[in-house]
Amino acid sequence: MSAATLRTTAGIMLAESDTLVRSLPGLLDPLSEADRRRVLAIGRHEILDIGKHIWRQGDTQSGIYLIESGRIRSYYAAPSGREVTLAYWFGGNFVGGPDLFGAGAHMWSSVAIERSRLLFLPGPALRELALQSATIAVALLDALAFKARCYSAMAQMLGTRSVTERLQRLLIFLSKIYGSQQGREIVIGIPFTHGDLANLIGATRQWVTVQLSRMQARGIIRYDRGLIVILNLRALDLELV
Questions:
Q1: What is the separation, in whole angstroms, between the first and last Cα of the chain?
Q2: What region does 63 belong to: left with phi over 0, alpha with psi -120 to 50, or beta?
Q3: What are 75-82's contacts with CB under 8 Å, separation 24+?
Q4: Range of 184's domain?
Q5: Taking the C-alpha atoms of 106, 84, 78 and 60 in order, what is their torsion angle to the nearest 10 degrees?
Q6: Residues 107-162: tens digit of each pLDDT
Q7: Same domain, yes or no, for 145 and 184?
Q8: Do 131 and 226 belong to one domain?
Q9: Same domain flag for 154 and 178
Q10: Same domain, 191 and 102
Q11: Helices 134-160 and 163-178: crossing angle, nearest 10°?
Protein backbone atom coordinates (compact mmCIF):
# COMPACT_ATOMS: atom_id res chain seq x y z
CA MET A 1 0.00 0.00 0.00
CA SER A 2 1.66 3.21 -1.15
CA ALA A 3 1.57 6.63 0.47
CA ALA A 4 -0.57 7.79 -2.45
CA THR A 5 -3.17 5.16 -1.56
CA LEU A 6 -3.34 6.59 1.94
CA ARG A 7 -4.06 10.13 0.83
CA THR A 8 -6.20 12.36 2.99
CA THR A 9 -9.81 11.49 2.24
CA ALA A 10 -13.00 12.93 3.67
CA GLY A 11 -15.60 10.83 5.40
CA ILE A 12 -19.34 11.40 5.61
CA MET A 13 -20.88 12.19 8.97
CA LEU A 14 -23.22 14.57 10.77
CA ALA A 15 -21.20 17.61 11.84
CA GLU A 16 -21.84 21.30 12.42
CA SER A 17 -18.86 22.34 10.32
CA ASP A 18 -17.31 20.71 7.26
CA THR A 19 -13.89 22.00 8.38
CA LEU A 20 -13.69 19.06 10.78
CA VAL A 21 -13.76 16.58 7.93
CA ARG A 22 -11.62 18.65 5.56
CA SER A 23 -8.72 18.18 7.99
CA LEU A 24 -9.10 14.40 8.08
CA PRO A 25 -5.66 12.79 8.54
CA GLY A 26 -4.50 9.49 7.12
CA LEU A 27 -3.24 7.19 9.88
CA LEU A 28 0.10 6.49 8.18
CA ASP A 29 0.65 9.95 6.68
CA PRO A 30 2.83 11.38 9.51
CA LEU A 31 5.08 8.30 9.73
CA SER A 32 8.56 7.97 8.32
CA GLU A 33 9.09 5.42 5.56
CA ALA A 34 10.71 3.05 8.06
CA ASP A 35 7.82 3.28 10.55
CA ARG A 36 5.30 2.94 7.73
CA ARG A 37 6.96 -0.29 6.64
CA ARG A 38 6.89 -1.57 10.21
CA VAL A 39 3.16 -1.00 10.46
CA LEU A 40 2.43 -2.51 7.06
CA ALA A 41 4.56 -5.56 7.91
CA ILE A 42 2.14 -6.70 10.65
CA GLY A 43 -0.88 -6.30 8.38
CA ARG A 44 -3.03 -8.77 6.46
CA HIS A 45 -4.92 -7.72 3.33
CA GLU A 46 -8.60 -8.56 3.02
CA ILE A 47 -11.23 -7.95 0.35
CA LEU A 48 -14.77 -7.25 1.56
CA ASP A 49 -17.69 -7.52 -0.85
CA ILE A 50 -20.71 -5.21 -0.71
CA GLY A 51 -22.92 -5.98 2.29
CA LYS A 52 -20.28 -7.95 4.17
CA HIS A 53 -19.57 -6.96 7.77
CA ILE A 54 -16.09 -6.43 9.15
CA TRP A 55 -17.68 -7.06 12.53
CA ARG A 56 -21.01 -6.69 14.22
CA GLN A 57 -21.91 -4.81 17.37
CA GLY A 58 -20.92 -6.92 20.38
CA ASP A 59 -18.21 -8.92 18.59
CA THR A 60 -14.88 -9.16 20.39
CA GLN A 61 -12.32 -6.65 19.15
CA SER A 62 -9.05 -7.99 17.76
CA GLY A 63 -7.48 -4.99 16.01
CA ILE A 64 -8.17 -2.24 13.49
CA TYR A 65 -8.64 -2.10 9.71
CA LEU A 66 -7.04 0.47 7.42
CA ILE A 67 -9.25 1.17 4.40
CA GLU A 68 -7.21 1.12 1.21
CA SER A 69 -10.17 1.54 -1.15
CA GLY A 70 -13.96 1.35 -1.04
CA ARG A 71 -16.45 2.66 1.50
CA ILE A 72 -17.27 1.39 5.00
CA ARG A 73 -20.36 2.33 6.99
CA SER A 74 -20.13 2.34 10.79
CA TYR A 75 -23.49 2.26 12.56
CA TYR A 76 -25.19 1.62 15.89
CA ALA A 77 -28.24 -0.64 16.11
CA ALA A 78 -30.67 -0.04 18.99
CA PRO A 79 -32.50 -2.94 20.68
CA SER A 80 -35.58 -1.84 18.73
CA GLY A 81 -33.70 -2.51 15.48
CA ARG A 82 -33.44 1.15 14.54
CA GLU A 83 -30.04 2.12 13.16
CA VAL A 84 -28.03 5.34 13.35
CA THR A 85 -25.16 5.79 10.93
CA LEU A 86 -22.10 7.15 12.72
CA ALA A 87 -20.10 7.76 9.56
CA TYR A 88 -19.08 6.52 6.13
CA TRP A 89 -15.31 6.04 5.87
CA PHE A 90 -13.21 5.98 2.70
CA GLY A 91 -9.65 5.04 1.77
CA GLY A 92 -7.04 6.46 4.15
CA ASN A 93 -9.25 6.05 7.21
CA PHE A 94 -9.27 3.27 9.76
CA VAL A 95 -12.14 1.55 11.56
CA GLY A 96 -11.97 -0.33 14.83
CA GLY A 97 -11.72 2.16 17.69
CA PRO A 98 -11.87 3.05 20.42
CA ASP A 99 -9.98 -0.05 21.61
CA LEU A 100 -7.17 0.03 19.07
CA PHE A 101 -5.30 -2.86 20.60
CA GLY A 102 -8.12 -5.36 20.64
CA ALA A 103 -9.91 -5.59 23.98
CA GLY A 104 -13.57 -5.68 24.88
CA ALA A 105 -16.58 -5.70 22.57
CA HIS A 106 -17.26 -3.57 19.50
CA MET A 107 -19.67 -0.75 20.33
CA TRP A 108 -21.06 -0.59 16.78
CA SER A 109 -21.05 -2.49 13.48
CA SER A 110 -19.04 -1.81 10.34
CA VAL A 111 -20.14 -3.00 6.88
CA ALA A 112 -18.88 -2.57 3.32
CA ILE A 113 -21.06 -0.28 1.20
CA GLU A 114 -18.77 -0.80 -1.79
CA ARG A 115 -16.32 -3.59 -2.56
CA SER A 116 -13.46 -2.63 -0.26
CA ARG A 117 -9.80 -3.49 0.15
CA LEU A 118 -8.67 -3.43 3.78
CA LEU A 119 -5.49 -3.98 5.76
CA PHE A 120 -6.05 -5.69 9.12
CA LEU A 121 -3.63 -4.66 11.90
CA PRO A 122 -3.85 -7.09 14.86
CA GLY A 123 -4.18 -5.35 18.20
CA PRO A 124 -1.36 -7.09 20.15
CA ALA A 125 1.20 -6.50 17.37
CA LEU A 126 0.06 -2.89 16.99
CA ARG A 127 0.46 -2.38 20.73
CA GLU A 128 4.05 -3.66 20.54
CA LEU A 129 4.82 -1.20 17.76
CA ALA A 130 3.33 1.64 19.81
CA LEU A 131 5.57 0.69 22.75
CA GLN A 132 8.63 0.63 20.49
CA SER A 133 7.98 3.84 18.52
CA ALA A 134 6.77 7.13 19.98
CA THR A 135 5.98 8.35 16.45
CA ILE A 136 3.63 5.42 15.80
CA ALA A 137 2.03 5.84 19.22
CA VAL A 138 1.38 9.55 18.61
CA ALA A 139 -0.05 8.82 15.13
CA LEU A 140 -2.50 6.35 16.68
CA LEU A 141 -3.46 8.86 19.38
CA ASP A 142 -3.97 11.61 16.80
CA ALA A 143 -6.16 9.34 14.66
CA LEU A 144 -8.19 8.27 17.67
CA ALA A 145 -8.59 11.89 18.82
CA PHE A 146 -9.91 12.77 15.36
CA LYS A 147 -12.53 10.02 15.59
CA ALA A 148 -13.51 11.27 19.05
CA ARG A 149 -14.01 14.80 17.69
CA CYS A 150 -16.16 13.43 14.85
CA TYR A 151 -18.44 11.45 17.13
CA SER A 152 -18.62 14.31 19.65
CA ALA A 153 -19.70 16.64 16.83
CA MET A 154 -22.39 14.15 15.82
CA ALA A 155 -23.65 13.90 19.42
CA GLN A 156 -23.79 17.70 19.67
CA MET A 157 -25.80 17.92 16.45
CA LEU A 158 -28.24 15.24 17.60
CA GLY A 159 -28.65 16.97 20.96
CA THR A 160 -28.92 20.61 19.88
CA ARG A 161 -30.32 20.70 16.33
CA SER A 162 -33.82 19.82 15.21
CA VAL A 163 -34.18 16.98 12.74
CA THR A 164 -35.03 19.53 10.01
CA GLU A 165 -31.85 21.48 10.75
CA ARG A 166 -29.82 18.26 10.72
CA LEU A 167 -31.09 17.40 7.24
CA GLN A 168 -30.30 20.90 5.98
CA ARG A 169 -26.83 20.81 7.54
CA LEU A 170 -26.13 17.41 6.00
CA LEU A 171 -27.12 18.61 2.53
CA ILE A 172 -24.86 21.66 2.90
CA PHE A 173 -22.02 19.45 4.09
CA LEU A 174 -22.41 17.05 1.16
CA SER A 175 -22.57 19.92 -1.33
CA LYS A 176 -19.31 21.43 -0.02
CA ILE A 177 -17.31 18.22 0.35
CA TYR A 178 -18.68 16.08 -2.49
CA GLY A 179 -20.49 18.58 -4.69
CA SER A 180 -19.58 19.38 -8.27
CA GLN A 181 -20.62 22.78 -9.63
CA GLN A 182 -22.45 22.35 -12.93
CA GLY A 183 -23.72 25.73 -14.04
CA ARG A 184 -25.96 27.00 -11.25
CA GLU A 185 -26.47 23.53 -9.82
CA ILE A 186 -24.36 21.51 -7.37
CA VAL A 187 -24.42 17.80 -8.07
CA ILE A 188 -23.53 15.57 -5.12
CA GLY A 189 -21.40 12.81 -6.58
CA ILE A 190 -22.27 10.06 -4.10
CA PRO A 191 -25.76 8.46 -4.30
CA PHE A 192 -27.92 8.26 -1.17
CA THR A 193 -31.25 6.55 -0.59
CA HIS A 194 -33.85 8.15 1.67
CA GLY A 195 -32.94 5.48 4.22
CA ASP A 196 -29.25 6.41 4.06
CA LEU A 197 -30.06 10.05 4.80
CA ALA A 198 -32.47 9.08 7.57
CA ASN A 199 -29.87 6.95 9.32
CA LEU A 200 -27.33 9.78 9.18
CA ILE A 201 -29.60 12.35 10.82
CA GLY A 202 -31.56 10.14 13.22
CA ALA A 203 -34.92 10.32 11.43
CA THR A 204 -37.30 7.92 9.71
CA ARG A 205 -37.16 7.18 6.01
CA GLN A 206 -40.77 8.37 5.63
CA TRP A 207 -39.95 11.73 7.22
CA VAL A 208 -36.96 12.24 4.92
CA THR A 209 -39.11 11.38 1.88
CA VAL A 210 -41.66 14.03 2.84
CA GLN A 211 -39.00 16.68 3.50
CA LEU A 212 -37.15 16.06 0.25
CA SER A 213 -40.44 16.32 -1.65
CA ARG A 214 -41.13 19.68 0.01
CA MET A 215 -37.64 20.93 -0.85
CA GLN A 216 -38.13 19.87 -4.46
CA ALA A 217 -41.47 21.67 -4.61
CA ARG A 218 -39.76 24.84 -3.33
CA GLY A 219 -36.96 24.60 -5.90
CA ILE A 220 -34.21 23.99 -3.34
CA ILE A 221 -33.11 20.54 -4.48
CA ARG A 222 -33.76 17.88 -7.09
CA TYR A 223 -33.66 14.22 -6.12
CA ASP A 224 -33.76 11.36 -8.60
CA ARG A 225 -32.77 7.74 -7.92
CA GLY A 226 -30.30 8.60 -5.20
CA LEU A 227 -28.76 11.57 -6.99
CA ILE A 228 -29.07 14.84 -5.05
CA VAL A 229 -28.76 18.13 -6.91
CA ILE A 230 -28.68 21.38 -4.92
CA LEU A 231 -30.54 24.08 -6.83
CA ASN A 232 -30.49 26.79 -4.16
CA LEU A 233 -27.72 26.40 -1.58
CA ARG A 234 -28.36 29.89 -0.21
CA ALA A 235 -31.88 28.88 0.79
CA LEU A 236 -30.50 26.02 2.90
CA ASP A 237 -27.98 28.36 4.57
CA LEU A 238 -30.62 30.98 5.33
CA GLU A 239 -32.94 28.46 6.95
CA LEU A 240 -30.17 27.47 9.38
CA VAL A 241 -29.61 31.03 10.61
A1: 44
A2: left
A3: 75/108, 75/109, 75/110, 75/111, 75/199, 76/107, 76/108, 76/109, 77/108, 77/109
A4: 163-240
A5: -10
A6: 999 999 999 999 999 999 999 999 999 999 999 998 888 888 888 888 888 889 99
A7: no
A8: no
A9: no
A10: no
A11: 140
Q: What is the 3 state secondary structure string of 55-122? A: ECCCCECCEEEEEEECEEEEEEECCCCCEEEEEEEECCCEECCCCCCCCCECCCEEEECCCEEEEEEE
Domain-located, residue 6: no
**Helix, strand, or coil (residue 180):** strand
pTM, whole model, 2 decimals? 0.84
Q: Return the SS3 of 234.
A: helix
Burial of 34 (0-12, 13-18, 19+ CB in 10 A): exposed
Q: What is the CATH classification number for the domain harbouring 96? A: 2.60.120.10
